[in-house]
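Hey all, quick one. A colleague (J.T.) asked me to put the nicotinamide-adenine-dinucleotide job into the tracker so the inputs and the structure tokens live in one place instead of scattered across chat threads. No bug as far as I know, just bookkeeping. Sequence used:
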Amino acid sequence: SPLRIGFTGLGHMGGPMAANLVRAGHTVLGFDLVPAALEQAEADGVTVVASAAESATDVDIVVTMLPSGRQVLECYTGEGGLLAAAKPGTLFIDSSTVDVADARAAHEAAAAAGHRSLDAPVSGGVAGAAGGTLTFMVGGSEEAFSDARAVLDVMGGKVVHCGDAGSGQAAKICNNMILGISMIAVSEAFVLGEELGLSHQALFDVASTASGQCWSLTSYCPVPELVPASPANRDYQPGFAAALMAKDLGLAASAAQAGGVAADLGRRAAEVYAAFAEGSGAGKDFSAIIHEVRAGSAD
Ligand code: NAD
């Protein structure tokens, strides 16, 4: 049955996610700080409101899709915040990618205000948001998860309940730590192969069916012409921007440090993507990291 949903953060991801909720027949009250985001949302059938608080007033569910944990906690608990505006028992779903500690703080604040909450970060990028095919990684109670299921299924293709508060964010950063490191590994292997006179095709034919097989190689290959969907085939237009990979690996590295986990390669990968995203990799897909490997190699 149609729900009333408050939605704060109508950017690259939140905009199309909110539009899909409207298309599914729900009433969406949307808010963002940026006028252009509100104009697009209005064109998509979102009911634009004047404040975050108004978007959370008398709704069943509040979704947030914001840049980082700081904005989430601010929107939840700051002056004119979402938690205070919502009726008791409202279900809060934060789909932003944030620090696990911030996610847990958001859950605690929601519970203290008498609400239920989920951390529900996504993968799949802007294309997944537009197509309603995102993967949701969800942390929080079984009961909140089952109540959220209907709306998550509208915005996503795959929805995984990962455990208690913070588990969705934990799954997201652990997955992306594998992805970020493995993309560097594949890039280093291709550049070493070039130096050794090995063709891209030969290395691909061997590694893609041998023990070097991984998603970074067979679905998102950093050299062109081997895999149809690779950003490498379109001059490394994202896809998944290097800056976002740097963000996610930074969250993984700080969680590892806080927990005393010796994730040395994860930390190193965070540094490599951060330097790349701030320099020649600005605006590029993260798989363009192969250029950084080449640039750092002796001729
Ligand atoms: P974005 O910057 O396009 O959108 C964020 C929106 O939040 C902006 O429109 C901004 O104006 C709004 N905002 C910020 N503070 C606000 C406030 N106090 N009140 C109301 N609105 C506010 O970012 P995005 O690409 O949509 O990403 C959103 C989140 O999703 C991030 O946490 C990101 O890490 C994560 N994510 C992004 C992608 C991707 O491919 N873009 C993929 C997976 C996850």
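Adding what we noticed when we looked at it: The chain is about 50% helix and 15% strand. The chain has a mean pLDDT of 97.
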